[in-house]
Design brief:
Blueprint lengths: L9 E6 L5 E6 L7 E3 L8 H4 L10 H8 L9
Parallel strand pairs: 1-3
Antiparallel strand pairs: 1-2
């Protein structure tokens, strides 16, 4: 392999939505970084079969405010 062209490969800590954590190696971030997941296999509807609305950064509230009353006739 050529020297100096490959990204640094290091350990990071992954924290699942239920608080469990594990260490894995990656090229992303820096050594010792912590990655907190919003959605993982323990909470994603594709694996759990349960639908829930996740409002990350107020996007659902923004959508509801923008389209409030859409389709309702006022009379």
């Amino acid at each position: 392999m050529k020297e100096g062209i490959h990204p640094e490969y290091h350990y990071v800590t992954i924290v699942m939505t239920d608080g469990t954590e594990y260490r894995t190696r990656t090229c992303a971030g820096k050594e010792g970084d912590v990655l907190r997941l919003d959605i993982d296999p323990k909470s994603h509807p594709a694996w759990t079969g349960v639908q829930r609305m996740l409002d990350t950064g107020g996007q659902v509230a923004k959508f509801n405010k923008k389209f409030a009353g859409l389709g309702m006739k006022k009379g």
